[in-house]
Amino acid sequence: MKSDNSLFNKSIPHDSGAKHVSGLAKYTDDISEQPNTLYGAIGWSTNAHAKIKNIDLNAVKNSEGIVSIVTHSDIPGRNDVGPVFDGDPIFPQNKVEYYGQPLFAVAATSMELARKAVLKAKVFYQNLKPIVTIDDALKKNSLLFKPRVIKKGNPNQEIEKSKNKIKGNFTTGSQEHFYLEGQVAFVIPKEDNNYTVYSSTQHPSETQQIIAKMLNQKSNSIDVLVRRIGGGFGGKETNFMTSAICALLSHKTKKPIKLRLDRDDDIIITGKRHDFYSDYEVGFDDDGCINGLKLKLASRCGMSPDLSLAINERALLHIDNAYCLTNLEIKNYLCKTNTASSTAFRGFGGNQGMMAIENIIDNIARHLKKDPSEVRMRNFYGKKNRNITHYGMKINDNVINEIFDDLKTKSNYKKRYSEIKKFNQKNRFKKKGIAITPVKFGISFTTIHLNQAGALVHVYTDGSIHMNHGGIEMGQGTHTKIAQLVANSFGLPYEKVQISSTNTSKVPNTSASAASSTTDLNGAATLNAVSKIKSNLNNFIKKKYKIFSKTEPLYKNGNIYIGNRIFNFEHIIKEAYLNRISLSSSGFYSTPKINFNKKIFKGRPFYYFCYGAAVTEVTIDTFTGESVLDRVDILHDVGNAINPALERGQIEGGFVQGQGWLTMEEVVWDKSGKIKTFSPSTYKIPAINDIPKKFNVEIFKKGLNVEKVVNKAKTTGEPPLMLAMSVFFAIKDAIASTVNYKKTPVINAPATPEKILLSIKKLKNIV
Amino acid sequence: MVSNTIQFIYNNQICSIKNPDPNKTVLDYIRNDLKKIGTKEGCAEGGCGACTVVLGELKNSKLIYKSINSCISFLPSLNGKHLILVENLMSKKNQLHPIQEAMVKFHGSQCGFCTPGFIMSLFAMYKNFKKFNNEIIEETLSGNLCRCTGYRPIIEAAKSLNNKKDNDHFKKDQIKIIKLLKKINNNEIEISYKDKKYFSPKSINSLKKIIKKNPNAHFLSGGTDLSLEVTKLRGEIKNIISLNSVKELNFVKKNKNFIEIGAGVSLYDFQNIIKSHYLDFYNILKRYGSVQIRNVGTISGNIATASPIGDTLPLLLSLDAVVKINNKSGLEIIPLNKFFISYRKTKLKKGDFVYSVKIPINKKNYFRAYKISKRFDDDISTVCASFNFLIKNKRIIDAKIAYGGMSEIPKRATLIEKKLNNSVFSEELFLNAQNLIEDDFSPIDDMRASKNYRIEIARNLLMKFFYEINTNSNIRIN
């Protein structure tokens, strides 16, 4: 079936744009409450590791406005919100395992009274020794799972044989999601113990299942609705604590409950990005080509498994970034620590793996006194050979060489590289640095069964369209893009398509809006539903008007062209209805071709790869360690974009978020496991003056998805975050200039002013 | 006349609230009483800008517009103001305001949660300026955090407003609003709500009377620090005396030798006054919180709260500023250098209040100030350093150096000053002097930085000052 292509490659504004700017876009907390609604608040542990001796809630009970209190004994079913494994008790019975772990919750007549009351609890602990850092966990063998070993070729022998060898270690830091809308849920009890749940989640289906299991009910008694969320970035993928506790309070009180974490509680209670530590040994030739690599890769997973296994797996799958590693061994340690359970965050371990290899490549180049960009290119995957990954997948869509070449030319990299060296010779205190880094990021959930999606499309008798799918609108514009696809497929104006809340009773068993796959999966499922309706219509028209043409009907400009006849869409819809033709359909999609054997770490976990590269130029202040981004040039492959403006938004936003991760965002825990950075006054995400002074973003024009993804587009969700790796290595380059590039700087991420200054001092042997 | 009713304009009408809860925030009022949900809570501490609203007020019979953080403003502070919310920007025919149109057109929103705050900050800019260059745009938006867009499209949207003529409905309703504001502007406020009290006197005389009767009351200026007691610590502030409407405290005196700033002058107004005298003071003020904070916060508030990391304090110390305080015996002048006693403790006794701060103007001096923080904008100093030097014939006649973030109070570097005074201005001298940092200060480790880093940059900033003066150049990256 053909369609008019007018709505593709069109930068129409976000479907909620006008509502965002006028304050009319409703988020979960904005849904007006019935008068009998109560407000929840969570009481949490102020000890990171302890046995619970007693919890005295008398003062809480007697606090003004308190209607009800729930503890673990009020949970009828499963006392856990762990998505894959157990380990995340809603309220632990015997032992607290992190500072901020929920212990009980209250319902009160106002949010203020609820929040005041929970502070009055008296909890008696028997202190246990907390394990806070990766280092500590490795020493004490505090691991969530047995260490995993991935091996390819013979790295020991290859390193041994190599002319050049280096060893070292490297750390990337944690990161708080800092979505502007905090975790919030609003639960309304219905008849038959059913509940309607409004939640700021990226995963309505799992919210439904978790609540059903907690209440010992069936999933069909829980409806979860999400119109939009105020940012997610992975932080709302498995954080089911808020909606579960809210539902529990509603279950106990039989009243509607609204539970919204304030910013401090949100940061204290919920998990963040995994810090990763790597320890490496690498052998390479005089061009910097890697012969063999041995790595130890350890991550801070927090107190429970959550998604840590999948996140570490993605780190292992991205340890190659864009480089062909033929002899490789990785030992992976999932450290259990007394901190909030580390969770999904844009990049999902991929970025941590990629930073580890980028740092190694950078160090190889510095060891050989070469331009790191040349060592990078020397190690790139090839198109026809050197194209098998360390997990045995053949790469058939490689464009990194073209992107790198193009960007180096466009950004004038070579000239600037030598000009910067001159600048640094002339300037004693201000130093510049430049770096170009590649991104290759695999698209698909590596847990294969998650790569499915459903949709529901109705055509009403007036010709208007109602669309539903399993994806969550979190800013990325998935509804906008899918509405473009639907309108385009029906040959109707975009405005004819009504977008509504994501709803578990309309589309069941959905996967999280995650892994950059939301539009790919749900767009395809929605088009599947559309094609079924169109097929009904085509058959009806052909039969009724006796058209025997075999050419594909064309849906365009509000008309349907079949054979040599033209039918007005609205008219024919009415007619079809009167002739009892179904105008509604569900749709389904599952990603083809993918398979992955997790045990032997082999297969094709990714449907396709996204590619991109960025050049960053920075200046650092050697008095203070401060840095600024003078210029950034990005070239990113988005395939044939459905909506280029929205893709550009993802690229720029992802870059700045990555920049934050690698420069200023620093989560600090003290020795006792207490988090010290839990509000915007202590935790800094990039603000308007931090972005690059010159910011050139281009979409790779030759980009085309070689796989059958809608519109031959490529997703932009996570990959652009890793374009910011260039910021870190530009800073490292500037640091190296302080000793005239004679030595390799040692610096871990984030490159805060303090770390930069310390690195300079170390390099100059002052420390 | 004393009234227990606050009055303000909303939707072109006078709204009156009798004895409102003085601890209720403006945001709470907007969302839960007005039931307007466009204004969002992002952090409840004035750190993200999602709750930004605009207050219109009269200044010399002209309407000016101020963006504020509604999450840390108490409801009575609306008295006498015109409250403007994001929902009010559309025309009566539901046409988007030019700012809103631009933000949609340039794809300035993604998840949209921070967007109303950005719109309101831009609205204040749109009304207060005629041209919007990068500097104005970036200053305007430095207190609005966005986690999705990376800001570029928002900046583009703001720039595009340069081509739009301001004929929005606020312009059309201007005369009407001025009339209404004049109508409600006159009463002193005295509120009783349960066991809480709130006073907003209009003169020093009545302020003094109120203090006498309520010796335990808290003074409220911008409230950007005080309000956190309620919004973060979930406490209550029983008695509040607002200094904002006291006419005698809202003044600026200037002559050849000094500037005197009344306690009621906002930091935003102050930054524009100090600019021509001490450029670095202006540069640092621009990084003091956000425009929303500086619109309400005052320099005397900064002095009275006496935070070791208060950004203006090292600057004032090195400039040898003096504080005029009002105590039982009247006005007393205290050198700022003698004002701070220990952590957040000052010479102010119960019932005393800051009247003004007086800053000497030294045209011959070299004045430089540096603020180091993890983030350039809207961040708390790791270290703030300020240098005020009189140098004659290569000899240092008078060195005044003060640091913030290095001690429990902002403090002068006395030993270093001593070492430098009456010596030849030379690299060698400074290299020697920087070794005295640890004799002058012993900073702490915290989540912002380590003790060692603080010491290191304190030393380096001394050297930076030397090189900047010595080479008569700017060695800064920002």
Strand and helix layout:
The complex is a heterodimer of chains A (767) and B (478).
Chain A: E1 2-3, H1 17-22, E2 38-44, E3 50-56, H2 58-61, E4 66-70, E5 95-96, E6 102-108, H3 111-118, E7 122-127, H4 134-139, E8 148-152, H5 155-161, E9 164-172, E10 184-189, E11 195-199, H6 204-215, E12 222-226, H7 241-253, E13 257-260, H8 263-269, E14 276-284, E15 290-300, H9 308-317, E16 328-335, H10 350-368, H11 372-379, H12 400-410, H13 413-426, E17 430-443, E18 452-459, E19 465-469, H14 478-490, E20 497-499, E21 502-503, H15 518-544, E22 554-556, E23 559-562, E24 565-568, H16 569-578, E25 584-590, E26 595-597, E27 602-604, E28 608-621, E29 627-636, H17 644-663, E30 694-699, H18 725-737, H19 753-763
Parallel strand pairs in A: 1-22, 2-13, 11-12, 15-16, 19-20, 29-30
Antiparallel strand pairs in A: 2-6, 3-5, 3-7, 4-6, 8-16, 9-14, 10-11, 10-13, 12-21, 14-15, 17-28, 18-19, 18-25, 22-23, 23-24, 26-27, 28-29
Chain B: E1 2-3, E2 5-10, E3 13-18, H1 26-33, E4 52-59, E5 62-69, E6 82-84, H2 98-105, H3 115-128, H4 134-141, H5 152-160, H6 169-172, H7 174-184, E7 188-193, E8 196-200, H8 204-213, E9 218-220, H9 228-231, E10 239-242, E11 252-254, E12 258-262, H10 267-274, H11 279-285, H12 291-296, H13 299-305, H14 313-318, E13 322-327, E14 330-335, E15 340-342, E16 345-346, E17 353-360, E18 366-372, E19 383-392, E20 395-404, E21 411-412, H15 414-420, H16 427-433, H17 437-440, H18 451-470
Observed structural traits:
heterodimer; A: 767 residues; alpha+beta; Aldehyde Oxidoreductase, domain 4; Aldehyde Oxidoreductase, domain 3; 3 domains; five-stranded mixed β-sheet; globular; disordered N terminus; B: Ubiquitin-like (UB roll); Uridine Diphospho-n-acetylenolpyruvylglucosamine Reductase, domain 3; Enolase-like, domain 1; 18 helices; 21 strands; 24% strand
Description:
The complex is a heterodimer of chains A (767) and B (478). Chain A has 19 helices and 30 strands. Chain A folds into 3 domains: 2-24 and 452-590, Aldehyde oxidase/xanthine dehydrogenase, molybdopterin binding domain (Aldehyde Oxidoreductase, domain 4); 31-129 and 183-229 and 236-269, Aldehyde oxidase/xanthine dehydrogenase, a/b hammerhead (Aldehyde Oxidoreductase, domain 3); 276-446 and 597-763, Aldehyde oxidase/xanthine dehydrogenase, molybdopterin binding domain (Aldehyde Oxidoreductase, domain 4). With 767 residues, chain A is an alpha+beta fold. The longest helix of chain A has 27 residues, at 518-544. In chain A, helix 18 runs parallel beside helix 19 (753-763). With 478 residues, chain B is of the alpha+beta class. Chain B has 3 domains: 8-185, Ubiquitin-like (UB roll), CATH 3.10.20; 247-360, Uridine Diphospho-n-acetylenolpyruvylglucosamine Reductase, domain 3, CATH 3.30.465.10; 366-470, 2-Layer Sandwich (Enolase-like, domain 1), CATH 3.30.390. Chain B contains 18 helices and 21 strands. In chain B, a hairpin with a 2-residue loop joins strand 4 and strand 5 (62-69). The longest helix of chain B has 20 residues, at 451-470. The termini of chain B are far apart. The model of chain B has no long low-confidence stretch (mean pLDDT 96). The chains are: A alpha+beta (767), B alpha+beta (478). Chains A and B meet through helix 1, helix 3, strand 28, helix 17 and helix 19 of A and helix 2, helix 3, helix 5 and helix 18 of B.
